[in-house]
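HOLO CASE FILE
Compound: zinc ion
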Amino acid sequence: MIYYVTGTPVNVTLGRVYEAVDFACNALGLTVETLEVVFSPLPTGACGYADYEEEESHAEIEVSRDLSENETIRTIFHELVHVCQYDRGWLQVGYPQLWNGKPVNDIYSHREHEQEAYSLELFLYEDFTNVRRQVFL
Ligand SMILES: [Zn+2]
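Model generated. Tokens follow.
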């Protein structure tokens, strides 16, 4: 996979961004051929978006450039979980989107693909920041 970053986050070094993207792509086993990570000035309250083009095996995530470092990393993880959901065909682009073949009609916080993205985002973040360690005895 090739990925490239366009735009610059305000509060995070690009080196840290690369570490976070590398980490999540490996952990999630992403198989898209190309990924673009775009930092842009999103409206207040919006953290990010994910988009996917199956034919080109291309994904794009857009992340607000103004977030704190922690929020930026968590948003990268969150949006990459959505890329993973698209990549595996669980989530499908459209109006409405389809999740496991069914239209997504629930309010935002009740959407299963969002609940999965939030829980995996936290899981990845804890691993990335070494908050959690697993010990095998
Ligand atoms: Zn989401």
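CASE NOTES: The radius of gyration is 15 Å. The mean pLDDT is 94.
CLOSED: yes
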